[in-house]
Design a protein that fits this description.
Layout: H1 6-30, E1 40-41, H2 44-53, E2 66-67, H3 82-118
Antiparallel strand pairs: 1-2
Helix pairs in contact: 1-2, 1-3
């Protein structure tokens, strides 16, 4: 038996999205020396809103990554900034930790309700 609530479902999608953000950041970092590579990204808040509006659908919808505008391009055509990616990775890690803590709290609340019913 799987116990889910609307909040736990939303938090699951939030965690999936932060995971995708970390993968994209890792890909950008891995390509720092690839000539012509353009930094990829997506608007986290917009994608999360899209995930929530599709809450009735099954599964996680892959975010649409696109080139990030406004970055300085080196002579080899690559525009990856390790400073930017490091900040993005730290932000994603904090978002992931927040999501995990909120999900733990949600399940703790559900378990408390179940145990209260049993008494």
């Amino acid at each position: 038996m799987q116990v889910t609530t609307a909040l736990s479902d939303a938090l699951g999608r939030y965690l999936d999205l932060t995971g995708e953000q970390m993968k994209l950041t890792a890909s950008n970092m891995a390509n720092v020396d690839t000539p012509g590579y353009k930094t990829q990204g997506f608007d986290f808040e917009q994608e999360f809103a899209r995930q929530l509006t599709g809450a009735g659908s099954t599964g996680f919808a892959q975010p649409a990554a696109q080139d990030v505008d406004g970055l300085v391009t080196r002579p080899d055509g690559n525009n990856v900034s390790m400073d930017r990616e490091g900040i993005q990775l730290a932000k994603s890690q904090l978002q992931f930790r927040l999501g995990v803590e909120l999900l733990k709290h949600e399940y703790s609340t559900v378990m408390s309700a179940i145990h209260a019913e049993a008494k």
